[in-house]
Amino acid sequence: MLHNPVVSRDDMTSRYGWVIVAVGGFMGCVAIGAVFTLPVFQQPMAADTGWSRTGISLAMTLNFLAMGIAAFFWGMALDRFGPRPVLLAGSTILGAGLVLASRARSVTEFQLLFGVLVGVGGGAIFAPLMATVASWFERNRALAISLVSAGMGIAPMTVAPIAAELVSRTDWRFSQLVIGLAVWALLLPASLLIRRAPAAAVAAGMARAVGRPSLSRVFTSPQFLILAATFFLCCGTHSGPLFHTVSYAISCGLPVMAAVSIYSVEGAAGLAGRVVIGLLADRFGAKHIFVIGLVWQAFAAGAYMFARTPDEFYSVAVAFGFAYAGVMPLYSVLLRENFPVAIIGTVVGAASLASSLGMATGPLVGGLIFDHFNSYNGLYIVAFMSGLGAAAIMLTFRPARSAAVPAEEPAGHPSPAVR
C-alpha cells in the first residue's frame, strides 16, 4: 500500500519560495524590458520627431531618478502592506506611463511621461521583488536573488528584439503603445501570485507591536553607506554603455538589427553571469566575488571604446554583460545579511535610490558627450574610471556579522549594523 509522503510546512514554504523566484523573474523581465525599450526607440524617435539625443536621453535619466525615489517609498509600503498591493499599483502605473508616452507631442511631455510616470511604476517592481525574494530564503539566498535578477537580464533577449521588430514594421509610437498594453496584460495577473514570506509577515507583526529599528541608524551605518556609494558608482559604470551602445554600434556602421543584437548578447551573457556569480557568492562569500566582478565590469566597459566590427562588439558584450549583470544581485544579498527583515523593503528601496542616481548619470553624460564631440569615446573612459572607483570603495566593506541576520529576528532587536 502506498503512503503519501508527509510534507512539512517548512518544505511547502521553501517550495513556494521558488515559485516567487520564477514569477519574480518573469515580472522583472517584462518591467525592465519595457523600460529599456527606449534605447531601441532612440534613433527612430530622433529621426521622426527631430528631438535631440540629449533630450531623449534626459527622459531615461528622469526615469532612473523617479524609479529610485519611488523605490524608497514603495519599499516602505512593502514592509507595511506586503508585496502584492505594491506590485499591482506599480504595474498599473508602469503600463499607463508607456501608453501615454507613446502619444507625447513634445520632448518635454515625453520626458515627464516616460521619465516620471514610467519611472514611478518601475520603482515598484525591481526593489520590492528583490526584497521579497531576499526574505524568503536563508540558504541559497544569493542564487535565488540572482535567478530573479536573471529574469530581468533576459529582457534584452526578449523585449528588445520584439521592440526592434515592431519599430521596423510600424513606428515608435505604435510600438510603445503595444509594449504598454502588454505590461498590463502580463504583470497584473502575475502580481497576484506574489506574497509575503512567512518570516517577513512575523517580523511585520512584531514591528507593529514593539516598533521598528531606527532608520537613521540604518542609513548612517558604515555597511549601508559603503554599499550605497558602491551601488551609485557601479550603476554609473554600466548605465551609459547599456543605453548608448546600440547607437554607438550603428555609428560604427553596423545595421540596426545587428546593433540591437549586441544588446541581446549582453543579456544572454548576463543570464550566465547572474547564475554563476550567485553560486560563487553562496560558496565563497559575496564581498570577495563582488570586488572581482566590479573590476571585471570596469575593464569590459572601457573595452567598448576599441570595438569596431561585429565580432569585436559581441566579444566585449559577453564580458560586459556577464560582469555587470552578475554583480547586481549581490547588493540585495549583502543588505539582507546586514539588516533586519522587518525593514528590508525600506533598506533595499533606499539602496535602489542610490543606484538610480548612478543609473541616471550614464544616459545623460553619454548624450552630452556625443552631442558635443560627435563621439562616444569619452563615455567609455568615464565608465572605466567609475568602475574602478566602485571596486575600491567595496574593498573597505566590513560586514556587521559573519552570519546572516535570522529571518525571525524581532524588529526590536536589530543587528549590530543598526545598533
Assign a percent range to the helix content: over 70%
Instruction: Give the percentage of residues in beta strands.
Output: under 5%
Strand count, sense and closure of the main sheet?
Answer: none
Q: Any idea what the radius of gyration is?
A: 21 Å
Structural class: mainly alpha
Structure overview:
The structure is a single chain. This protein is an all-alpha fold and 419 residues long. It has 18 helices and no strands. It has helices spanning 9-35, 38-49, 53-81, 83-101, 107-122, 126-136, 141-153, 155-169, 172-191, 198-210, 215-220, 222-251, 256-284, 286-303, 310-327, 329-338, 344-373, 377-394. Helix 2 (38-49) crosses helix 12 (222-251), helix 12 runs parallel beside helix 17 (344-373) and helix 14 runs antiparallel to helix 18 (377-394). The protein is globular, with a radius of gyration of 21 Å. The model is unreliable at 1-12 and 402-419 (pLDDT under 50).
In short:
The protein has 419 residues and is mainly alpha-helical. Helices cover 80% and strands 0% of the residues.
Keywords for this structure?
disordered N terminus; globular; 18 helices; disordered C terminus; mainly alpha; 419 residues
Secondary structure: elements and pairs:
Elements: H1 9-35, H2 38-49, H3 53-81, H4 83-101, H5 107-122, H6 126-136, H7 141-153, H8 155-169, H9 172-191, H10 198-210, H11 215-220, H12 222-251, H13 256-284, H14 286-303, H15 310-327, H16 329-338, H17 344-373, H18 377-394
Helix pairs in contact: 1-6, 1-7, 1-8, 1-9, 2-3, 2-12, 3-4, 3-5, 3-6, 3-17, 4-5, 4-9, 6-7, 6-16, 6-17, 7-13, 7-16, 8-13, 12-13, 12-14, 12-16, 12-17, 12-18, 13-14, 13-15, 14-15, 14-18, 16-17, 17-18
